[in-house]
């Protein structure tokens, strides 16, 4: 049985959002914000950078999500020193989570069926990655429900 997050992910996929956009939208929803420009930007990461030859959009979208909490976003702001460690944790987890697919590229995960996300594979990865970024945030002293203060 799916939880509220799982149902939200299915709803977003049904609306035509790709994996990277779903990761960003779930994070924005968690912190109570909207940012259509960021969601549109995440579309550039869809389908492994468009042709499935690049890194899976679940991973790149999760990295964007971590950056929302700890990256530099304004001239008078500094990136949080924990960002590099959080990204390393995400990379290590994602590499392990996708090892049975043969790699972290979208094409590896989809067995070369570019543009046709597999609901079980992709949905499972999205759900697991969303839980993982929340855990990484908590492990590093962040509250996933509170985004970085806007200047």
Notes on the protein architecture:
There is one protein chain. The protein is an all-alpha fold and 151 residues long. It has one domain. It has eight helices and no strands. The protein has helices at 4-14, 19-30, 36-42, 46-49, 57-70, 83-97, 106-109, 119-139. The longest helix has 21 residues, at 119-139. It starts with a helix and ends in a 12-residue tail after the last helix. The mean pLDDT is 92.
Please give a quick description of this structure.
This protein has 151 residues and is mainly alpha-helical. It is built from eight helices and no strands.
Give the arrangement of secondary structure elements.
Layout: H1 4-14, H2 19-30, H3 36-42, H4 46-49, H5 57-70, H6 83-97, H7 106-109, H8 119-139
């Amino acid at each position: 049985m799916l939880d509220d997050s799982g149902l939200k992910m299915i709803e977003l996929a049904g609306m035509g959002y790709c994996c990277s956009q779903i990761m960003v939208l779930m994070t924005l929803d968690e912190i109570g914000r909207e940012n259509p420009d960021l969601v549109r930007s995440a579309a550039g990461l869809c389908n492994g950078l468009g042709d499935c030859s690049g890194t899976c959009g679940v991973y790149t979208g999760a990295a964007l999500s971590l950056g929302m909490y700890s990256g530099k976003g304004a001239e008078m702001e500094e990136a949080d020193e924990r960002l590099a460690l959080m990204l390393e944790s995400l990379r290590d987890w994602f590499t392990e989570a996708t090892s049975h697919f043969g790699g972290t590229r979208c094409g590896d995960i989809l067995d070369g069926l570019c543009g046709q996300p597999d609901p079980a594979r992709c949905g499972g990865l999205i759900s697991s990655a969303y839980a993982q970024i929340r855990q990484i945030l908590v492990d590093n002293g962040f509250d996933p429900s509170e985004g970085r203060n806007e200047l």
